[in-house]
Amino acid sequence: TAGGSKELHAWFLEASRGKNIRKTITVRLFKSDKTPGRGYNLLDCFPTRYSAADKDPVTGVSTESITVKV
């Protein structure tokens, strides 16, 4: 979503400063034809690692990842 990267990063930074901020997150998997497939709701997640990469010059796609403890 728009602004999603800023929100994930801010959540990770607050947690790394000692705040116990837990959130419910949704993981949505997409099929090869790019239609929504299976989804999972993960309750009481706490971020443990965050990384962001620059845009791929060929595809223009940015990748970020966050590891959470459920």
Describe this structure as you would to a colleague.
With 70 residues, the chain is an alpha+beta fold. Helices cover 19% and strands 44% of the residues. The chain has one helix and three strands; from the N terminus they run H-E-E-E. The chain has a three-stranded antiparallel sheet. The longest helix has 13 residues. The chain is flat. The mean pLDDT is 87.
Number of helices: 1
User: What fraction of residues sit in β-strands?
Assistant: 35-45%
* Arithmetic mean pLDDT: 87
Structural class: alpha+beta
Helix content: 10-25%
Please report the distance between the alpha carbons of the first and last residues: 22 Å
